[in-house]
Design goal:
The complex is a heterodimer of chains A (299) and B (276). By secondary structure, chain A is mostly helical. Chain A has a single domain, classed as MetI-like fold. Chain A is 70% helix and 0% strand. The longest helix of chain A is centred in the middle third of the chain and has 32 residues. Chain A starts with 38 loop residues before the first helix and ends in a 10-residue tail after the last helix. Chain B has two domains: 198 residues, P-loop containing nucleotide triphosphate hydrolases (Rossmann fold), CATH 3.40.50; 69 residues, no CATH class. In chain B, a hairpin with a 2-residue loop joins strand 4 and strand 5. Chain B is globular and about 55 Å long. The chains are: A mainly alpha (299), B alpha/beta (276). At the A-B interface, helix 8 and helix 9 of A face strand 6 and helix 3 of B. Bound molecules: adenosine-5'-diphosphate (ADP) and magnesium ion. Magnesium ion binds next to helix 2 of chain B. Magnesium ion (MG) binds next to helix 2 of chain B.
Chain lengths: 299, 276
């Protein structure tokens, strides 16, 4: 046997032989097993707080840059935009535009989710349904929903119908795909446990598959929401005036034509704020109460 | 360590039943994959009586889990028949509760108490109040009364297995199917769990069909052991082990039995077609 040289140059180590000991009894566990984190650490743990910090930094950068540039037609200052935003909300009809947009969005989102649920249930209970879903999603998912706009206009005319059609298209495939993937990745053990309890068919879907796949379903709903929101604003920019009143996208377009740049930014700010609110408040709250509470998703 | 109630576990049987609860006759199980057909168990017959702690013992991949799944109603035999109380098994049902090796068998969106109560609610054999009480009692029986309102992800692996056992036992199934429930646990926890399972059993005398690949676990936990040959699983022997408990672990008889089983598992089976 070859002895490998110790590169430290020290002799081969041999620890000393020490005495044994055994403590008489179990030590009292200290009371300090669990205690709440101090307040400042809990605040730092809050995602909302950390995101607000990022927003504040961005706002400061914007204000500074616009002040330095001093060209309100191209780049109004944030403070001007906020003033424009408030005055548009109060008197400029921006609020009605937002309501209009939200109404179309909610209808389209709801119809899209209902359709996604129907298709996914069909896909997870029958093999044929699964083939249909895979084929349709691979066809429609890469298609930007706005590209269907000309067709929608042809079929549903200039109005809410076309917008809803386009939104349904952007929600449906994203939600159906991620829900189906979520169902497929539910562990065999959990399925077998459910069937042991006497669940099958739709009751298995409702009581085991949906909660077990909730992280994927929520991810799909988030993507669907983002798609729908962008699609809608884009569609409104193209043809916002429906039944005499346009939405948020149209507000932006109109103000650009009038060179009211602060208002354009105010409209964009609305788009961002609403998106941020839904993403950071609504979806975060749902996640916190469900998948994160259950340990199915960490961050 | 709380020692098991030895007189009850080790008693010489004065049998109460003469008819088996579960009976497998010449059962062959096959899987059809895209590429081939795999035989998981071949011509397996055995009877389980009420109060049995019946062990399926064999090397990994010899078809123990497949046999358990077939009893559970998840896998239909291609030949032979499986009868529970005389009735042929054709689907999963709440009269057979399964405890799996995997820790993810609990519903993560339900607390421990809700997990234990859930199958009882589905079974509708008990009133809502009874379900609540039973859930509490069985959670306490496995020593988790303090964790009733916790969610599964906050528990250790051993605790999750305890919940799964409580959930299954609370249903009072005709037979409890356990697929290597302690295999993923560390050695110390496993030892404690075996001990506690025996203690639980001595209070209920539930009928248990228990899969393991550990000879020692088979002899300690089981009252009767079915030894299976390597893949595909065939019956090699049926052995009594009700006379052994933890305290016998160092004894010569215990060691002798383990040695005998070891020999069976690792020498060629004369009946095996390929003779390996
Ligand atoms: N779902 C499956 N599809 C195909 N083959 C399988 C499947 N499950 C198990 N097998 C095969 O059947 C044999 C027995 O498996 P299993 O019953 O899980 O063995 P054990 O539980 O004794 O380790 C193995 O050869 C395994 O590869
Ligand atoms: Mg197995």
């Amino acid at each position: 046997m070859t002895v490998i040289e110790q590169t430290t140059g020290l002799p081969l180590a041999l620890p000393p032989v020490r005495g044994e000991f055994e403590l008489p009894s179990v030590i009292e566990p200290s009371a300090d097993v669990e205690r709440p984190l101090p307040l400042h650490e809990r605040i730092l743990q809050s995602t909302v707080f950390r995101r607000l910090v990022v927003v504040a930094v961005l706002a400061a950068v914007w204000e500074g840059y616009a002040t330095w540039l001093d060209n309100p037609l191209m780049m109004p200052r944030l403070s001007d935009v906020v003033v424009a935003l408030v005055s548009s909300l109060v008197s400029g009809g921006l609020f009605a535009r937002i309501l209009m947009t939200m109404k179309v969005l909610v209808i389209g989102y709801a119809v899209g989710i209902a359709a996604a649920a129907a298709i996914t249930i069909l896909a997870s209970t029958t093999r044929f349904g699964s083939d249909v879903l895979s084929t349709l999603t691979s066809m429609f998912n890469p298609l930007p929903a706005v590209a269907l706009l000309p067709l929608a206009l042809l079929w549903f005319g200039l109005g809410m119908g076309s917008l809803v059609f386009v939104i349904v298209n952007s929600v449906l495939w994203a939600v159906a795909l991620s829900t189906h993937t979520g169902f497929q990745s539910v562990s065999e053990t959990l399925r077998m446990a459910g069937r042991c309890f006497g669940l099958k068919g739709l009751s298995l879907v409702a009581e085991i598959l949906i909660p077990a796949a909730l992280p994927s379903i929520l991810a799909g709903l988030k993507i669907g929401w983002a798609f729908a929101w962008r699609t809608l604003i884009a569609a409104e920019l193209v043809f916002g005036v429906s039944s005499g009143q346009g939405g948020l996208g149209w507000f932006i377009y109109e103000n650009r034509n009038n060179l009211e740049t602060a208002n354009v930014f105010a409209g964009l700010l609305c788009v961002i704020l609403i998106g941020l609110f839904v993403e950071s408040v609504i979806f975060r709250t749902i996640e916190r109460r469900t998948v994160r509470r259950w340990g199915m998703q960490k961050f | 360590m709380n020692m098991i109630n030895q007189p009850q576990i080790k008693q010489a049987y004065t049998a109460t039943d003469t008819k088996p609860v579960l009976s497998l006759k010449n059962v062959t199980l096959r899987y059809r994959t895209d590429a081939s057909i795999v035989t998981a168990a071949y011509d397996v017959s055995f009877d389980v009586y009420r109060g049995d702690r019946f062990i399926l013992l064999g090397a990994s991949g010899c078809g123990k889990s497949s046999l358990l799944k077939a009893v559970g109603g998840f896998l239909a035999p291609v030949a032979g028949e499986i009868r529970l109380d005389g009735k042929i098994i054709d689907a999963p049902g709440p009269d057979r509760m399964m405890v799996f090796q995997e820790f993810d068998q609990l519903l993560p969106w339900k607390t421990i108490l809700e997990n234990v109560a859930y199958p009882m609610q589905k079974a509708k054999r008990w009133s809502a109040a009874e379900v609540r009480d039973r859930a509490r009692v069985f959670t306490a029986k496995v020593g988790l009364e303090k964790f009733g309102d916790a969610y599964p992800h906050t528990l250790s692996g051993g605790m999750k297995q305890r919940v799964a056992i409580a959930r299954a036992m609370a249903m009072e199934p005709k037979i409890l199917l356990m697929d290597e429930p302690f295999a993923a646990l560390d050695a110390l926890t496993r030892r404690k769990m075996q001990d506690d399972l025996l203690e639980l059993w001595s209070g209920t005398h539930s009928t248990i069909l228990f899969v393991t690949h550990s000879i020692e676990e088979a002899v300690i936990v089981g009252s009767r052991i079915l030894v299976l040959t390597p893949h595909p699983g065939q019956v090699r022997a049926e052995i009594n082990s009700h006379q052994f408990a933890f305290s016998d672990m160092g004894s010569t008889e215990f060691g002798g039995l383990c040695g005998r089983i070891h020999h069976m598992l690792f020498t060629p089976c004369p009946r095996h077609p390929k003779g390996h």
